[in-house]
Amino acid sequence: MDDFFLSYGKLSPKVPDWIKGFKSFVINKPKSILYKIQAKLRGYKNKEGLRIRKLKLALVVFISLVLVVALAYLIGIYLDGGSEKNASKVSEKAAENKNTVLEAVILNDDFEKGSLGWRNPEAIQKEDNGNHYIINNCSWEVCQEMNLLPHTTYAVSANTKKGTAQGPARIAFSFLDINGVKLPQFYDIKYTHTGGGWEKIPRQFIMVPKNAATAWIYLLSEDPKGYHCFDNITVTRTSEIGDRKATEMNADQNELMINGDFEMGLYGWIGMADRIKYENGNRFLRNGYNWETFQIIDVNPGQKYLITAETRKGTSSKPARIKVVFLNQDEKRVPEFFNILHSFDTTGWENVTEVIQAPSSVNQLRVYLLADDPEGNGTYCDFDSISLKAVTDEELKKKLIKNSGLTRMINGSQKSGQYVVKEGDTVSGLARQFNIPEQELISANAFSDPGRLEIGQIIYLPQGNTQSLNQTVAP
Predict the structure, then answer these.
(1) C-alpha 151: how far from its chain's center?
(2) Which fold has domain 99-251?
């Protein structure tokens, strides 16, 4: 019995005093009681009394064993639980960091496991140093299905190297609901290379729609004849946006524009990642004449909205342009639109304020930011602090809207023919066929991907050859 107790008598010096005291009570006290009982048993002559005393002894031994087991369990919790407590503290501390990445979701992000997780294994390449990467042209075959959490924000980053393709490298995202139906929300991150080596695409953010069941990521270019290279693709859940959104909601819950100040890069916007500029601690958008930078916003039919912005004269001699187009429930462009044009009086930031009204047949709009300079050859304007809020007539009466005569708005209706896409049709080909500037055709239809027309798709032809318009097919 002494050996049994002694085997549990050695405790780590790190064990706190309360456990040592408990050990003294559990081990030394029963031993003292045991010795006293043994001494008394030697003096008993009566066999009945001896039997009772033996039963009492067995009871004491049983209780002692139970207490010893309890002590061992408490010591185990203390010693093993320390690491859990430390890990918990580290986790809590990390959660306090706004930039903490919580979860990675891409499989085989560096392609070192071949085509695992990715389609089109023939696209995997190997450099002389042994590094694996993937290449692609404008096809949608290089992709991966991801299980992302609905209504959750993810950070996106990647490395890319210029190949033989003309135009930017692209990382696109699409979403499907539980029935496999494609949702209208999407992201198309574009990056223009500056050299011939590997370059890191600035970190961007995407928000998964609340009714999304699955998501797809695509790596591609815009050139059917050339390719670009991709490596180290990461999509990680992050707390950074959640913290920012809470702040924004507390500031103004009526704001419909997401990331209108561009402090989170292209988060909420579709466009080129390298169009976001940083100057004196402030981020803003710099764009020329193109239809690549826009945001999709759900609206109510017939509702009036107040749109405000800051814009700055860049290298373009033409006005800054904010174009608003509308889409119906079938995601088709309707004829009505607003063109907000702001001419510059200074070289600094200037304010733009206008009121627009959604047509009765729509439930979505797109806001485009660009320089109104089709012949600009690389000239640009700057944009910042874009805002869109629903307003009532009573609220408008209390607001003083003043643009110093520099801003004018065109409320128009796009008269157009219609055309049904056939096999082999391309945007550039249709633009040539109908004598329409390609960028105007893209703008008129609010294409999510101009390089991906679908057979049977109905597109608007805003202007051009009358004879060609008469040849279009009715829907």
Answers:
(1) 9
(2) Jelly Rolls (2.60.120)
Residue pair 453/421 in contact (Cβ under 8 Å)? The answer is yes
Give the tens place of pLDDT for each residue, 83-138.
443 444 334 434 444 444 456 689 999 999 998 999 999 999 999 999 999 999 99
Q: How many CB atoms lie within 10 A of CB 364?
A: 18
Here the tokens at position 269 are 């916007």
Q: For residue range 253-297, list pLDDT tens digits in order.
A: 789 998 899 988 888 888 877 889 989 989 999 999 988 889 999
Domain 414-475 CATH superfamily: LysM domain (3.10.350.10)
Nearest 5°: the CA angle 433, 228, 182 is 65
Q: Say what the pLDDT of residue 73 is.
A: 65
Q: Spell 237-256 as b/e; 16+ CB within 10 A means b.
A: bbbbbeebeeebeeeeeeeb
Place of tokens 């499907």: 176
Answer positive or negative: Cα dihedral of 92, 96, 100, 101.
Answer: positive
256-262+272-413 and 414-475 in the same fold? no
Overall size of the chain counted in residues: 475
Phi and psi at residue 32, to the nearest 5°: -65, -45
Residue 188: CB atoms within 10 A of its CB come to 20
The domain 256-262+272-413 having CATH identifier 2.160.20: the answer here is no
Helix 47-96 with 29-42: angle, nearest 10 deg: 170
| Residue-wise pLDDT tens digits, 199-258 | 999 888 888 888 899 999 999 998 888 999 999 999 998 765 555 555 554 556 789 998
What whole-number distance in Å separates Cα of residue 67 and Cα of residue 63?
Answer: 6
62: confidence class by pLDDT, cuts 50, 70, 90: confident
pLDDT of 367 reads 96
Cα separation, 253 vs 243, in Å, equals 15
Instruction: Burial-class residue 7 by CB neighbours within 10 Å (0-12, 13-18, 19+).
Output: exposed
